Predict the structure.
Amino acid sequence: MQSRAAVRYAKAIYEIALEENSVKELYNDMDIIKSVYFDSLDFKNLLSNSLINHEEKKKAILLLIKNNSALTDKLLDLLIYNKRVPLLADVAISFVDLYNKYNNIKEATVITASPINSDLQFQILSKINVSDIKSIRITNELDPEIIGGFILRYDGKQYNASVKQNINNLKKELTN
């Protein structure tokens, strides 16, 4: 759960992006920040490290986003001015959530042992009874522990079709 301050920053920057007709560009930047935050411990440390000055943090963040929008720059400046740079990831997460809500996009997480392509994503999503698959954004997380198959998390539910789960089920049946 994001802090109230992060949600407020996200709402404010979303409103400004709507006025400037640059929501999609800002969404792309926020999505990159969100992804990097979840994928990189170094990025998390960068945001929370008080020994690194804010301008250096800004330079490092903008290096991650190849063609950042002007609003991303302004948001970083505002967070620096208010000494709230550590909130950036939560602001990005809140912004992506807002974007998905306003555009009627749901998120699904597919956990697999190795990366999957779009055809396989489509096949996995067919397991969900949804009328418009295009309104679902898929995040592929890797977990070699599941051995094979997949785990699908969508709309508060989990569908576990992993090899590890099948092995565990088989063990239970054999011990009963």
